[in-house]
Structure formats: C-alpha cells, structure tokens
Amino acid sequence: MTRAVLLALMLTSFVGCHRNQDAEGPMERAGRNVDRAADKTGKALGKAAEKTGEAFEKAGKKLKGNDATPPERKPSE
After folding, report:
1. Interval 54-73: pLDDT, tens
2. In the prediction, which pLDDT does 45 show?
3. Residue 77 lies in a domain
4. How far is CA 10 from the centre of its chain?
5. What's the Cα-to-Cα distance from 12 to each of 1, 17, 63, rounded to whole Å?
6. Distance CA 44, CA 24 (A)
7. CA 28 to CA 55: how far, in whole Å?
8. Is residue 26 assigned to a domain?
9. CA–CA separation, 39 vs 27, rounded Å?
C-alpha cells in the first residue's frame, strides 16, 4: 500500500512538473522579433529605393532636356 501511494505521488509530481515541449523559448521569441524587424526594414528599403529611382529618373530627364525649358541664349556680338 505504501509503495502504491509513493508511486502515485511520484507519477503526479512528474506530470505536474512536465513543461510544454512545444512552448516557445526566449531565443525563439527573439529570433521571431529579429525576423519581423528584418522584414520591416526590407520593405522600408524597397520603398526608399523606389522613390530614389524615381528621383533619379526625373533628374535624368531634366539633364537631357526632356522636362526642362531650354536655357536662353545671349545674342552673339
């Protein structure tokens, strides 16, 4: 009887102390946060590159004279 009670106490203590093996640990949470930050940074860099590309195209057109008005020429003497 005493062995049965001790066995039952041991089994309940093991079950009560069992941690969820699928639970996320601190390193996994940190990794997930790093992944999210990298995704946000990548999206922001993509938007910035797109705007920069548009600005370069606009500047290039102005330098070629497509969008700019021609400069006034001074009459030659």
Report:
1. 999 999 888 887 555 555 66
2. 95
3. no
4. 47
5. 17, 8, 81
6. 28
7. 41
8. no
9. 18
Continuous H helices in 1-77: 2-17, 26-64
Q: Which two tokens stand for residue 74?
A: 């001074």
**Alpha carbons 63 and 51: distance in angstroms, whole number:** 18
Cα distances (angstroms) measured from residue 41 to each of 13, 29, 44, 48, 55: 47, 18, 5, 10, 21
What confidence tens digit (pLDDT) does each residue in 30-44 have?
Answer: 999 999 999 999 999
Number of domains in the chain: 1
Domain-embedded: residue 72: no
Domain membership of residue 38 as a residue range: 32-65
> What does the DSSP 8-state code read for residue 23?
S
What token pair was written down for 69? 């008005």
> Is residue 27 in a domain?
no
Record the pTM.
0.48
